[in-house]
Amino acid sequence: MDCLFCKIVNRDVPADIVYEDEHVLAFNDINPQAPTHILIIPKSHIATLNDIEERDLALVGRLPYVAARLAEERGFAEEGYRVVMNCNDQGGQTVYHIHMHLMGGRRFTWPAG
Ligand code: AMP
Ligand code: ZN
């Protein structure tokens, strides 16, 4: 499958991997928007939020769980951080394998741009 993030999972494309378990991979974003900017992905391919099925719920639930663990590990869990999932064109999605952005280390504004 011609999916960049599947290629990262399969080690066909290099990435700066910061966390891995049986179900989830996390790596530094190549174009960071914050002092910490990590992408957390399921190892199995799901293209968009719209494609999540009931059988995926436990897997997808691991994404915020891992985000919080990484935030804790990096010391900004208490002060706060931002997680984002973009869906499709208007949502700003550019890679069609779902991913949770974990951004920390600075103050974020709301609403998002
Ligand atoms: P989105 O726009 O929500 O689909 O986010 C895609 C993210 O993937 C962007 O923040 C990109 O900077 C990031 N990205 C694209 N290619 C790579 C790569 N090879 N390694 C790490 N991050 C990447
Ligand atoms: Zn994929």
Structure description:
The protein is α+β, with helices and mostly antiparallel strands and 113 residues long. The chain has one domain (4-104): HIT-like (HIT family, subunit A). The chain has helices at 4-9, 57-74, 88-91; strands at 17-20, 24-28, 36-42, 81-84, 100-104. A 5-stranded antiparallel sheet has the order 1-2-3-5-4, with helices on one face. β2 and β3 (36-42) form a beta hairpin. It is globular, with a radius of gyration of 14 Å. The relative contact order is 0.22. The mean pLDDT is 98. Bound molecules: adenosine monophosphate (AMP) and zinc ion. Residues 3, 5-6, 45, 97 line the site of zinc ion.
Question: How do the strands and helices of this protein lay out in sequence?
Answer:
Elements: H1 4-9, E1 17-20, E2 24-28, E3 36-42, H2 57-74, E4 81-84, H3 88-91, E5 100-104
Antiparallel strand pairs: 1-2, 2-3, 3-5, 4-5
Short description:
This protein has helices spanning 4-9, 57-74, 88-91, and strands at residues 17-20, 24-28, 36-42, 81-84, 100-104. With 113 residues, the protein is α+β, with helices and mostly antiparallel strands. Adenosine monophosphate binds next to loops.
